[in-house]
Amino acid sequence: MFAAVLCLCSDFTWASSDSERIRALEMLVEQQQKMLENMNIELQRLKAGEAAIVEDIVIVDETITESVTEQKAKPDFSMEVYGFVRADAIYDFKRVDPDWNDTLRVSTIPTKSGTYGNDGESIFSVRQSRLGVKGDYGPDVTYLLEAELFGVGGDQGQTTPRLRHAWATYKNFGMGQTWSNFMDPGVFPNTIDYWGPTGMVFYRNQQARYSIPLGPDMLSFSLEDPNTSFTVGRFRNVKACDLPNPEPGCASTDSTAADIFQAHNDLPDFTASYQKNGDFGHYKLAGIVRKLGYERLDNGDDGYKVGWGINASTVLNTWGQDNVKLEAVYGEGVGNYMNDGGVDIAPDSADLDSAKAGTVPILGIVAYYDHYWNERWSTSFGWSMTDLNTDDGQAGNEFEKGQIAQINLLHYPLDNVMMGGEFIWGQRENIDGNKGSDYRVQFSLQVNFDSGNLFAR
Fold first, then answer.
1. Most CB atoms within 10 A, among 102, 160, 303, 457?
2. Where along the sequence do coiled-coil regions lie (predicted)?
3. Of the candidates 150, 147, 156, which has an alpha carbon nearest to the alpha carbon of residue 125?
4. Can you state the angle between helices 2-14 and 18-73, rounded to 10 degrees?
């Protein structure tokens, strides 16, 4: 186009007459007008293309914004499967209740020689094996479901699934079954016997809990299932007709006190705890208040006592990975929260006519030390005691005091493998003063597994 203009300009310069020069000027003007028209068309085309590009950018931007908004509205979900396979080989130099022979639960030690047969028993067990699922749903929701093979209650002595935890939280609120708020699970030592320290508060309970984070520390309150531990003591076999205030027409029944007395729980237990965490380890102070109800099925009489308890515990770091674990608990009517041997309510007198229900005082002590020789070897040793201040109305063969002591040597040949041996001594003392002791050795092999996040989005 510019070449044509130059050509016209050249023709205009060399034109010989006025008419020729005028004609050349007209052609130059026409050519410039065409050039302007073409430039305008090109400009309009460029503007139209720019608008299309902007529209495409807006559409892409809106799509990205909608996608990001949708992702924010749908929280991330994660699930992890974990647990371990544990095999125990035990030699018991004495004998305990056969339903509990794969652990040294001191309340199952007999105080009379030969109760369960001659001394000496070999036991193999896989009941400590465990399987769990845990995860979260966004930043505000967590869940935990865990079971083991250590049957209790109607399944005691059996290798049947037993629920450990069924726990869910939303922000600071949690509900389900997990460690009691009155308990400090961190105090449990690095031992391999299943039952562990007899004087420890150890209880997985159904509850509703609200926790308030205070930086690294925690203040928690819970309402928990009461589940009162109740005994009628020495009056267990007394006929219903011989009890005070017998029901009219009781002569026609063979019911005993054990048949007609039962716990009556109409209010949950209330607990509060505060845990301080730091480089030193942690300490925890917990308290509990309970209404311990009871009733008679024959005449409808009922009543209640107030139970309470204080639990102070700590895990103190010493050097390396080592730590000392200490706990002292005292209360009245908090026996069912103890690891072993506790009772909440018992008759307070040996006189049938004047006996009333009373809360049973209890003291528990735990003192253990976990030592790590290096990354592959460790030793834990310590002692624990439970002592009940029993009432006169309890039977002479009921549990009053228990002790346990342990020492072990454990090896970790691989990151997910543990094997080692432990020596355990336990003693039971009854209200009538009779004692029974037991000692055993245990070897265990444990292989852990952890799937990591099976599902995550």
1. 102
2. 22-49
3. 150
4. 170
